[in-house]
Write a structure and sequence with these properties.
Blueprint lengths: L4 H4 L12 E7 L8 E7 L7 H6 L8 H13 L3 E7 L1 H7 L1 H14 L7 E5 L11 E4 L2 H4 L1 H24 L5 H4 L5 H10 L12 H4 L6
Parallel strand pairs: 1-4, 4-5
Antiparallel strand pairs: 1-2, 2-3
Length: about 210
């Protein structure tokens, strides 16, 4: 289970005692449609209530209902929360890695206060962050701050895709969140692509410009 070990081990040079440590994570790198979304969460003084401490984990290991409950609990807590995203046009123009970095920068910049240091889930640190940062592989399973950020990113993105599904009901986005499931691919085969599909992702890029069935 995640804890604050990695937050507490950041050298004082970067994060003075009682400094603000942000966890940062993303959701939506792999889907064929929709934005990539990043969350950033700071627990001031590394203080967290018992419920969040015992239940926070990598969002992929939790049910949708548990993620929603944790999302609401985070927003009701003392946590500082930021969220950022990069849309499909930016994903296609920049590539998914650079768009993910952009979403992460936007999430950190959206925090109510600038952190002293950030822990980034994964093996790369986005350039041009407003603070020093360290990559942490599987950070969402190790750090409470990063786990919280993974919840913010995942729930926010799932809600976006559910809203988009109301306008484009052919693809099952309220269930598959834009991933390439059979229902999504069947919807593309029957109705073609829409403006929210990532035109540089296979198999979408092979369908762009083709007439609708």
């Amino acid at each position: 289970m995640p804890d604050f070990t990695h937050e507490r081990n950041i050298p004082d040079l970067f994060a003075p005692r009682n400094g603000l440590i942000a966890g940062v994570d993303e959701a939506g790198r792999g889907p064929l449609a929709g934005p990539v979304v990043a969350g950033a969460v700071i627990f001031p003084n590394l203080e967290i209530d018992d419920y969040l401490k015992s239940e926070l984990n990598d969002s992929k290991k939790l049910t949708a209902a548990k993620r929603e409950k944790l999302f609401d609990a985070l927003h009701a807590s003392n946590a500082l929360i930021g969220c950022g995203m990069a849309g499909v046009e930016e994903i296609d123009a920049l590539n998914i890695l650079q768009a993910t970095f952009l979403a992460m920068r936007r999430a950190v910049e959206a925090l109510p206060r600038t952190p002293d240091f950030a822990l980034i889930d994964g093996n790369k640190v986005p350039p041009s962050l407003p603070c020093p940062a360290q990559a942490l592989i599987k950070g969402d399973a190790l750090s409470l701050s990063v786990a919280a950020a993974s919840i913010v990113a995942k729930v926010t993105r799932d809600r976006i895709m559910t809203d988009l599904a109301k306008e484009f009901p052919f693809y099952g986005w309220e269930k598959n969140a834009g991933y390439g499931t059979k229902a999504h691919l069947d919807g593309i085969a029957a109705h073609g692509v829409c403006p929210h599909h990532r035109k540089t992702f296979a198999p979408i890029k092979d369908m762009v410009g083709q007439p609708l069935p």
